[in-house]
Amino acid sequence: MKLKFTASKLKKVIVMALLVGVTESVISYSSGPPSGLSNAPGDGNCTNCHSGSPITSGSTWSGITLTRAGGLSNVAPNSSNAMTLTFSSAISTRFGFELLVLPSSASSSSASVGTFTVGSSSDVQTVSATSPTRVYLEHTYAGSSASSGTKSWTFNWQTPVGFTGGATFYVAVNEADDDNSSAGDNIYVKTFSTTVLPVRWLDFTANENAGSVRLNWSTAQEINNNLFEVERSEDGKTFEKIGEVKGKGTTEAKSYYGFEDNAPLHTKALYRIKQLDMDGKEDYSKVISYDPAKNSEPQIVVNSTTQTIWFSNTDVIKQVKVWGLNGEVLQTYSQLNGANLQLNNLQNGMYLIEVTGTQGSQWMKKMLIQ
């Protein structure tokens, strides 16, 4: 049987086909938008498809947050960073987003920085683009619904090995009215900034060393690292350079450094390390203190009869160890409650008492029990 189409019937078929296409487009975007809508340089934003203009102020816009455990201001190179993007609305429970990370000085041709992993989350997914090469994070259909009016999307951002400096997160969020239409939705665009540090700091210590102060620090990784400048301060506000140590450039191996302050202050001193990379960017270590008053040897009186040790000043004591002559540590005390330390049931014999100060100094006493 042949089907005959009049002009009016054909018009209805075309209109229905167009409506189906529009509906499918709207529904497919609820499962995640195409790449290139983060509002970053070279990108559009969700108003390409949705009505209105991007919103860049107001209480709802201010409530968009991007957080990281440990803060967002600085991150380490070649590290995985657990992050959470949160959006809250008083008028909707259907949201979508797209996120991209670019260098701070990015242009329309800049590639993205780092990669995303979503783990077991069904709320987020990644999409890629070429020319330029960019990786985006965005919602899934399961991740577009929020019954309470607040939605949080969790993911991991892996910083690259060879990148240091500023990075910007570009985020576009769709506050949808959930009517299967691109009209009536609110589109918010916002940026967040971080700095990928050239050095991953580990420990930093200051200890007395034959009248000088020995500074030791280590790094887990270095990128483009030129040198370290050692700085000292009396008040914690004004620091002066007292020396420098050459860095190791780029390495993923753990590195150890030391510096001797041969003209230390006679009062409490504060130290920090200023790190400079090859292109002049800088970063600082934590600030540590060294107090010579806390390094002076306390009076230590050993009473073999009662198996007790008396200290004139317990504030400078960090740890006490009891050694046997065979080289075995028999007892360890890390907290002193009062000036007298009671030892535990030592047998007759000779023992060495090792006392470690809070600044790293060590003092030895003998105890003969008979």
Account of the protein in words:
This protein has 370 residues and is mainly beta. The chain folds into 3 domains: 28-196, Reeler domain (Immunoglobulin-like); 199-292, Immunoglobulin-like; 296-369, Immunoglobulin-like (Sandwich), CATH 2.60.40. It is 7% helix and 49% strand. It has helices spanning 7-29, 59-62, and strands at residues 65-68, 74-75, 80-88, 94-103, 115-117, 124-129, 134-139, 150-158, 165-176, 186-196, 199-209, 212-233, 240-251, 255-261, 269-277, 282-284, 288-290, 300-303, 308-311, 317-324, 329-333, 340-342, 349-357, 362-369. Strands 11, 12, 13, 14, 15, 16 and 17 form a 7-stranded antiparallel sheet that branches. Strands 2-10-9-4-7-6 form a 6-stranded mixed sheet, with no helix packed on it. The chain has a 4-stranded antiparallel sheet with strand order 1-3-8-5, with no helix packed on it. The protein is elongated, with a radius of gyration of 32 Å. The termini are far apart. Residues 1-5 and 12-28 have low confidence and may be disordered.
